[in-house]
Amino acid sequence: MYGPARDGYIEAVLDHSPQSVERFFGKHQLSPLTAPERVRALELMEMQRHAQLMYTSCGWFFDDIAGIETVQVIAYAARVLQLATDVFGESAAALEPAFLARMAEARSNVAAAGDGAKIYKEQVAPRN
pTM to 2 decimals? Predict the structure, then answer.
């Protein structure tokens, strides 16, 4: 079963105003949250949103993994990895290497594009 907070978060996404965020927390928090707890809750909601976005069907019914739709879906996954690292710290350290290992198995039909890991590293990965 999907959670009402996850479903209700769209209101805060569509309207980033402080009032909208207050309404979101008013409806979905079980007890008053501190400012850092609110930030963490919003990071978790964003992680969930991007996890959903990475399953966008046009990204996976592709002719090639280097196509624009699939690269966008990989970008959504990159955001999930980034948020997981921000929220969970060291315990999320193994996520990106595991993701890259799986992405390396997906080869492009275009030799120069390489595989999914190369596409991630060259076109998507957050730059530091």
Answer: 0.87
pLDDT digits (tens, 9 = 90+) for 97-127: 999 999 999 999 999 999 999 999 999 986 5
Q: What is the DSSP-derived secondary structure letter of residue 67?
A: S
C-alpha 18/C-alpha 104 separation (Å) is: 42
22-81 pLDDT per residue, tens: 999 999 999 999 999 999 999 999 999 999 999 888 777 778 899 999 999 999 999 999
For residue 98, give the nearest of 115, 119, 86, 81 by alpha carbon: 81
User: Residue 110 burial (CB < 10 Å; 0-12/13-18/19+)?
Assistant: exposed
Residues 96, 102, 106, 110: what is their CA dihedral angle, to the nearest 10 degrees? Answer: 30
* CA dist 1 → 4, 51, 57, 62 (Å): 9, 16, 21, 29
